[in-house]
Every structure is written in structure tokens, then in C-alpha cells.
Design brief:
The chain is mostly helical. It has one domain. The chain is built from 15 helices and 2 strands. Strand 1 and strand 2 form a beta hairpin. Helix 7 packs parallel to helix 12 and helix 7 packs across helix 13. The protein is globular, with a radius of gyration of 20 Å.
Length: 361
Amino acid sequence: MLYYFLFPLADAWKALNVFRYITFRSIYAAITAFLICLLLGPWIIRTLKKGGVEQAIRQDGPGAHLKKAGTPTMGGLIILPAIFISVGLWARWEQFAVWVTMASMLWFGAVGFWDDFIKFSGKNPKGMSSRLKLALQAVGGVAIMAAVMFRGEGGALAMSINVPFFKSALHLPVWLYFVLGWTVIVGACNGVNFTDGLDGLASGALALVGVTFAIMSYLVAHAKFANYLLVIHVPGGGELTVICSAMVGAVLGFLWFNSHPAEIFMGDTGSLALGGMLGTIAVLIKQELLLFVVGGVFVAETLSVILQVGSYKLTGKRIFKMAPLHHHFELSGWSETKVIIRFWIVAILLAIITLSTLKLR
């Protein structure tokens, strides 16, 4: 919004010319989202506490978690407005990438909110059924992939992806590209959701992935950089840098309240929305496979759940002491803070490896 009001005045006041630069708008999108979270946070936390919106604590989990009873959840109500307002102020809304990413955030956020609402309205403490939740996520993934694939570009770009460590893009059949993109979106959605189990764990990992994807979005949108780095050039993808920056600012602002000991939890409202956003951005910038690298923490958490459930159903035995993976390490004697910091360290290393793939081809 600010771009449309202020940039046209650059002829009269040269200082306003900065609004044409994605880097400038991205920096202030992050700052804006962060400040909005700091302003909204205390009020939303108080409101949720008054409404009795509290996180259910697993009785079979680590004993230290029992003291978290009474902590409000649905922290996505802090994060999502901050992102939406910040993007509204600093992004160029005529870009397709902005619309589809915001639509993704709102859809998956709505699914998460509905799930959280069912839990705390007394209708069902477990929330909506897993089948219904997955079905709604699947619908969102299908709609996003349909929009991305049939928005008018067509040709090789529409069905191409970058492959880490390889120079040439991979051109996929329509059906395979659709399945891959859908899997990335829905998988990211659930991966972030599984990771959101310790104070600040998901928030910190999301911030690192967001910074990495902000850099990637900027590079793939710049024709010279894309050609030099041998990645697919995505015209208009630069505005995703603004969105990624707003997300980073928002999750850092949320981390202000979510750091140990947490004053509020993210809940499905935030985790599903942010995961869906990440998956959508990965598809839009043609870095679907790279999300498995930079989001390795989310991948590990998801695989731990799949392996645990599969092993128990097939053999009656569990592989881990408890899934998702972070609970396994807690029950192995690691303190909650140690688990969080070590997972963050892994996320930092994965971010560095991800950026290194730009040159290691």
C-alpha cells in the first residue's frame, strides 16, 4: 500500500525512491511485523486467558510439561495479523505471488483456527478428526497447485524445478509436478505443526527458514543473479522476499512471548498457516526440493511421527520413546532448553548448507 501512495511522489521528493527497492521494503516489513506482534501480544494473551483457551498437556509426556498447564494457545492470532498488515503495507499486491501466498496463509490458518476452536469450545478436546483436517489441507494444496500451474505462464517454467547441487533444472510431467508441489505444501503444513511442541522451537526454526527463503526469493527474481547462479528465473518472485521478511519479523515478535517459559503457544492457528506459507513459497520460487534441506528439522519431526505410528501398527513396538522427535530427546534426559537450542543449531547449519547449494553445482 505504501508503495502505491509514496513511490509516485518520488519525482517531487527523491528520498521516496527507496520504495522501489525490495530490500528496503523487506527490512521494514520485518520491523513492522515485529512491532505489531509486540503491541498485539499482551492484549491477545490476556484475552485468551480470560476465555480459557489453554493448551492441553499430554499426561504421557515429559513430566516437566505438566507445569505448563494453563498457558494459552492460538498464538497464531498474534502472528497472522502482523504478517497480513505488514505485507499489506510494504508489498506490491498486483503480483500473483503475493495473492496466492496470502491466500495460502489464510486458508491453512482458518483450518488451524477451526481445529483450535473445536478443542477449546468443549465440543471435542482432541479437535477435528485427523481425516477432516487432512482433507481440508488437501483441498488447500490442490487449489494452490492449480493456481500456480495454470496462471498463464505454461511452458517449461511451469513444470520445472531446481535440483540442489545440479546445474540443470528438472522438467517434470504435469501430474508428477502437481503431486510434488502438493506434497511440499501439505507436508510443510504438518511438519511445522509437529515441531510446535516446545517453547520457541518452531518459532526459531521458522525464522531461520524464512531468512533463507527471503534470500532465495530475491535471487531467483533477479534475472542476472538467477542466470549467474544457474537457478530458474522467477519474474515477480521478488515480492516473496517482502513476505518472507514479514514472516521472520512476526515469528521473532511471537518468540518474544513464546520463549521459555512460554507465555503463549502457537497452536494450529499459527503452525498450519506458517507451514502452508512456506510450502507455497517453495513452489513459487521453484525450490520445492530445497525445502526438504532447509526445513530438515520439520522433516525429521514428521518422519519420526510416521515411523513411530507405522512401527507400532505393524509390530506393536515403538522406535522412539515418544514422537515427535523432540519429545524423544526430552525423555532421554535432555532438558527442554537444550533440545530447543540444539535443534536451532541444526536449523542454522541446514540454512548454511541450503545457501551453499547456490554455488556448489
